[in-house]
Amino acid sequence: MSRSCSGRYEVTRVGGEEVRAFIPDALPPSPPIDLSGPRLALLERAVLSIGRLDSVATLLPDPGLFLYAYVRREAVLSSQIEGTQSSLSDLLLFELEEAPGVPFNDVVEVSNYVAALEHGVMRLRGGVPLCCRLLHEMHEQLMQRGRGSAKEPGQFRSSQNWIGGTRPGNAHFVPPPPGHVSACMAELERFLNEENTGLPHLIRVALAHVQFETIHPFLDGNGRLGRLLIALLLHRDGLLTQPLLYLSLYLKQHRKLYYELLDGVRADAHWGAWVDFFLEGVEQTAQGAVQTAGRLVALFEEDTRRIHATGRTASTTRHALDALRRRPVINLKQLCTDAGMTFPSASKAMGRLIDAGIARELTGQRRNRVFVYDAYIAILNEGGEP
Description:
By secondary structure, the chain is mainly alpha-helical. Helices cover 59% and strands 7% of the residues. The chain has 15 helices and 6 strands.
């Protein structure tokens, strides 16, 4: 057995060959991370940005609408990091059960991600601690259908996994052997719930993400669940009233550096470089979310003004627009349900939205038509193309 600065290597035999698997030390790191000077300024800016996002979210006319859209945007981005090709429109079509031509396995993975996040938030609000049991439940949701559904959903792995390469023997990184996973995760659970760590909340989140990714406790889905863990911790620790901060776009844009920094922590205990990167990501992402919220509010206000200018049919058309705001991809059946309208009224209202250049019919068919709020989708899609 040999040591690195942030853990130790254990030589095991997998598939008839020797493998050096890495077992991380328990958190927090020793020696402690230096939180003075430029890093302290980074931390303060990141906290301020999160506070501004939380304030903006609570002032929105319909915070739930923004959460609905942002959760789905995050699901698409996080899954794209793992190689899926689904878009936000694909997911919304899938949820509408009108998805011809959509890659089924890809969009199912994204839909599972939404279910896992919503389950985690619901359980936290119900008083369940952020513990291994909750991670098991979320992983089961994440892997319930599609690719990976046969890889022990909801269970810590019982065999060796690896990152990069074709087998553990030529892998880029080999996480702890399966016999160490439960103990490593128990230590991480303790760290997540320890009240007197002396660490700022954001620093604890940064450390926990790396630790989870290093343990890689499941056979599949670790990357997505590790990114979900960031959002859940920010919400649980009271930094955000709603889970509205997601780093997947930032990590996607800086993927190579992200993996290099994870390697730097494992090989040389370069925690400081990782923390700086994480804090910069939090600041940029929070600022971007605030700007997105502002642009959506401006879009809704402008389109509402355009509808009012149409005259006596404005009220019915406004109800249709409200339904599109809640579901930017919608069919007439769903519109009738959401807006409490008859089918003829819904059809006429949607026709007026098309004439105003607000909505677009997607299928080109006379029956089973699907409508999309293009400007809304375009704002959410920025940076999120497959």
